[in-house]
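Entry 12.
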Amino acid sequence: MINNIFWYDGELIHSQTLELNINDPGLLYGATVFTTLRVYQNSLNSNLTNWQAHCDRLLFSVQSFGWQQPNWKHLRQGAQILLPHFPILRITLFPDGREWITGRLLPQYLTEKQKNGIFCATASSEFYRSLPSHKTGNYLSAWLAKTSLNAQEAILVDAQGNWLETSTGNLWGWCDRTWYTPPLTAGILPGIVRSQLINWLQNHQQQVREETWSVELIQRFEAIAYTNSVVEIIPIHTVYQPSGSLQYNPYHQSFQLIRELFLA
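Predicted 3D structure (tokens):
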């Protein structure tokens, strides 16, 4: 496996360092947008890789911010060159249209976490993501939320204590024969897997409700999990919070249908 290669501004670079101008807004302010995708079947054309959805996410942010569009041909060319070496690609865009693509391996112990679940802790409400509709390079609050807690993941909350999302993914809960996920209006990232799952579940006659995760609702859930394009779905068996811990069933049968999506 080659770890010291990446794609930057139309070129394949063999290095572990990237040189940026000291006045680059991406360096000074985190002025970048990015998306992280998992390559399935060694192909950008796989439905599960969902290449177009990731490009659409980038385009939405670029247009919203009035930035220069990248060379989309270069973007795909770089991803195509790196994908034989890495199952995960992170694609970053700068305001002037430069593209930067890096690769990495699947997270350690991912299969075990998918099977047995993880424990989380709720973060302070000060750790909210800015511009939550966009995946910007300024990810400091989410990073701090996760690294400051003695937990495997952090759950971000609003000022009222409602659960929003984890530091890296979207939340899902099961009760009353229904899947629940927080609404986009709560101020969360519109995850690509989140959209996939809503469509997938509804096409399989499963009830899905976008509803605020209040204190009352989270206590009703039999099972909860989080999703993103890298880990697929990971159950959460314990959530530590100042008022006490909550326990959920990481082996709940409701997860089986969702797992089938990633086997398609």
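Annotation: The chain has two domains: 5-104, 110-261. The radius of gyration is 19 Å.
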